[in-house]
Amino acid sequence: MDSQESHVIVLAYPAQGHINPLLQFAKRLASKGLKATLATTYYTVNSIDAPTVGVEPISDGFDEGGFKQASSLDVYLESFKTVGSRTLTELVFKFKASGSPVKCIVYDSLLPWALDVARNLGIYAAVFMTTSASICSMFWQIDLGLLSLPLKPQTATVSLPGLPPLGRCDLPSPMSEPTSQTAYLEAIMEKFHSLNEDDWVFCNSFEDLETVKKLVKAMRGKWPLVMVGPMVPSAYLDQQIDGDRAYGASLWKPTSSQCLTWLATKPPRSVIYGSFGSMENISAEQVEEIAWGLKASNRPFLWVLKESEKKLPTGFLNSVGETGMVVSWCNQLEELAHQAIGCFVTHCGWNSTLEGLGLGVPMVCVTERTDQPMNAKFVEDVWKVGVRTKKDEVGIVTREELEKCIRGAMDGESGEEIKRNANKWRELARSAVSVGGTSDMNINEFVVKLLEGKK
Ligand code: UDX
């Protein structure tokens, strides 16, 4: 069969932290001989620039601005399910009519209805998990009844097979705060309930990172996850100057050239890079503490903060002068890979965590919600590549705490140990996606099956 006929649609939830790994996966499939098309919503489709991959819009019912136009998250997800199912089906028919039939839909785990679309069309379905395998294992164990939700108020620690003991503050926020994000939790649990119906379950992680053998044993051998990550563009993992050096999607305009010029004036491994992801919504009090904590660390810093003019304390930028730079958006990978960067103050979104690990940058974790606390737990206690900040009694990371953690990650014996571990994980991440590595082989198996399969 002509490989051009082995066509895969990769469906991404329209957020930066979801488009990045799914687009990267589509690019890897294309580099291995499949025809890959990324499908996402009308208002994100024009932000994508990836020449080896086709890009097509589908509708979530809010074509001008998506989620922000909807009255609530429930309304948005319900609309995406109804309108998205119809428009994704139309897209598959359109490709069939044009002589490029689709064999498989790889879909984001936040869009579980795509499984029914694939089933109704008689094509393969593969779900792509954008969080860690440990998080997936936890949700699956909940679905299997090994842990009941909501947690009882007196539950302080959760012990699950294959995972380290997790304190309440380590758990994903829909679990630790049962009233928050119930729509997301429902979408996630719906997916875990139907996990065995997918032809493949991909995870953006790699086998060494998550001691998969332990997780498989914990699930009594019923472990459907296929590790294909980290989905970080390979030129960064290989430290090549050319090659694939961008995700190929940016929902905001980066100010990267300015940042690189500024970084070039700083000594190697001296700069703190601070970023809290694409959905950052940090309170004014917390911004103030971060600002003075960065200043007190006495090192140069580059900080990504949207609407900084409204949020930064008065006089802060003047007081730091050339030592600090604040931008609203940048090409994070380009900055993180710069030799001047010595530490990453991060919210521990899964993509940022994998980027820090894959580029060997010590991390300081200042988490907000969702999977971030559990990722931070692993950064500090399992992989030992960073330091996790503690919040005070009103839920704020104080300037003193931030300064202390930055010193712990960059200075003295603890800093040296973190650097050694960071180098080790960087090497393991690189080898997982290199030719013959575990993730690379897992992707090859999928590609071979699609090239030969009948569906
Ligand atoms: C969210 C969740 O936090 C994450 O855990 C989940 O798995 C996916 O959705 P987000 O909060 O945006 O994502 O964080 P993260 O997962 O780190 O993704 C952000 C992406 O935006 C990263 O790939 C990062 O490189 C990129 N980024 C961030 C930029 O390119 N420029 C910036 O200035 C900031």
Helix content: 40-55%
Strand order of the largest sheet: 3-2-1-4-5-8-9
Class derived from helix and strand content: alpha/beta
Main sheet: strands, sense, barrel: 7 strands, parallel
Protein name: UDP-glucoronosyl/UDP-glucosyl transferase family protein
GO molecular function: quercetin 3-O-glucosyltransferase activity; quercetin 7-O-glucosyltransferase activity
Organism: Populus alba x Populus x berolinensis
Family: Belongs to the UDP-glycosyltransferase family.
List the helices and strands and how they pair.
Layout: E1 7-11, H1 16-31, E2 35-41, H2 42-45, E3 54-58, H3 73-97, E4 102-108, H4 114-121, E5 124-129, H5 133-143, E6 157-158, E7 166-167, H6 173-176, H7 182-193, E8 200-203, H8 212-218, E9 225-227, H9 234-237, H10 256-263, E10 271-275, H11 284-296, E11 301-304, H12 308-311, H13 316-320, E12 324-327, H14 332-336, E13 341-346, H15 350-358, E14 363-365, H16 372-382, E15 386-388, H17 399-410, H18 412-433, H19 438-452
Parallel strand pairs: 1-2, 1-4, 2-3, 4-5, 5-8, 8-9, 10-11, 10-13, 11-12, 13-14, 14-15
Antiparallel strand pairs: 6-7
The structure holds uridine-5'-diphosphate-xylopyranose.
